[in-house]
Write a structure and sequence with these properties.
With 371 residues, the chain is of the alpha/beta class. The protein has 13 helices and twelve strands. The protein folds into two domains: 121 residues, Aspartate Aminotransferase, domain 1 (Alpha-Beta Complex), CATH 3.90.1150; 229 residues, Type I PLP-dependent aspartate aminotransferase-like (Major domain) (Aspartate Aminotransferase, domain 2, 3-Layer(aba) Sandwich). Helix 7 links the parallel strand 5 and strand 6.
Length: 371
């Protein structure tokens, strides 16, 4: 008798672009990578200084985040959103991908009678993978016509088993904004914790930046990162804040696993959170690049390329995401993400990240013959 096979990790989404990278690398100047949302612009000089001069390398850092870091986060929430979050209800995480990927297993231990993770049907792949790695049921929630999460589409049987609900606004990949107040109300009504991934909040184009915490802290946790806000993806500084019991539980569990943001990274985070000017500069860069790349793609392809309500991604219907990506690599020497990376519902779509310098975007334009 043979044992059944255990979990076999699927191919990592961006590894599936390797064959297209071979095509685009053949262009003079090489590949222009618009597939992964990796910032290319420099963080503020004060942040780099703090990273190199904190004198915190030798000791173990606090898992929940130093008091100075959490006070900086609290001040940022107050300044940016008008929300007062007690320092005890704030915790640090090593970027936010690890938080997204590991939180379901911790909540499953907290509430063993529930086993379902709800998440947007077209979304960041780690919501689904975090559920799978925790032994939970991943259940995709359909999206409305505007790309926001459709809470009314959640089936009663899934509500009864729900361990948590992920919302993401502005959305990766669609850029859509969801009604965070409605999500919080839904979660409280059904006794389901709502985790709101708000990593692109600083790049909200339709109206002001929002957080789920503006409607109260009970039953909700907001998740933020300095990777996008401050071009610090390689430093790995994220944070979560909200419901007192949920945050305290996660702080205590994460202590036992040694989830610690390095001390120098925490110092850099304090410096980044103290400065809003560089965020304004970065917003202007991304907005200009979104406009320019949308114009290039529309002129070359004849497709309609809508501007997002938030984020630094263009998300558009190309009929066949992989066919578009191959043509773009062949003719433009650039990579974009086929929409099925973000769920089967995105198979017709493409995501293009405006995370290359202006001269690299112009290089793509010249290859495509677009002025």
């Amino acid at each position: 008798m043979t044992e059944s096979a255990g979990f076999v990790p699927p191919p990592y989404p961006y590894d599936r672009l390797d064959h297209l990278a071979t095509i685009s690398n053949a262009f003079p100047g090489g590949t222009v990578d618009l597939s992964i949302g990796t910032p290319c612009d420099p963080p503020p000089a004060a942040v780099l200084t703090a990273l190199g001069t904190s004198d915190s390398e030798r000791g173990y850092p606090s898992s929940i985040g130093s008091e100075a870091l959490r006070r900086s986060i609290r001040a940022w929430f107050e300044r940016r959103f008008g929300v007062d979050v007690p320092i005890a209800q704030i915790g640090a995480c090593i970027g936010t991908k690890e938080f997204v990927g590991t939180t379901p297993q911790y909540l499953r231990l907290r509430t063993p009678g529930r086993d379902t993770v709800l998440y947007p049907a077209v979304s960041y792949p780690t919501y689904e993978m975090g559920a799978i790695l925790s032994g939970c049921r991943p259940v995709a929630v359909p999206t409305a016509a505007d790309g926001s999460i459709d809470l009314s589409a959640i089936q009663p049987a899934d509500v009864a088993r729900a361990l948590m609900l992920w919302v993401n606004s502005p959305s990766n990949p669609t850029g859509a904004l969801s009604d965070l107040a409605a999500a919080a109300t839904w979660g409280r009504a059904h006794d389901v914790p709502v985790f709101s991934d708000e990593c692109y909040a600083e790049y909200t184009w339709d109206g002001p930046a929002r957080t789920i915490l503006q409607g109260g802290l009970q039953g909700v946790v907001a998740v933020h990162s300095l990777s996008k806000r401050s071009n610090l993806a390689g430093v790995r500084v994220g944070y979560y804040a909200g419901d007192a019991e949920l945050v305290h539980y996660l702080q205590e569990v994460r202590k036992h696993v040694g989830m610690m943001v390095p001390g120098p990274a925490q110092a850099a985070g304090i410096a980044a959170l103290a400065d809003d000017k560089h965020v304004t500069v970065q917003r202007d860069r991304y907005r200009q690049r979104l406009d320019r790349l949308a114009d290039v793609l529309e002129t070359w392809s004849g497709l309609t390329i809508p501007m997002p309500a938030g984020s630094f991604y263009l998300w558009f219907d190309a009929c066949d995401g992989w066919a578009f990506a191959e043509r773009f690599a062949t003719e433009g020497g650039a990579l974009v993400s086929p929409g099925d990376f973000y769920g089967a519902g995105g198979a017709h779509n493409v995501r293009a990240a405006v995370v290359q310098p202006d001269d690299r975007i112009e290089l793509v334009a010249s290859r495509l013959g677009v002025k």
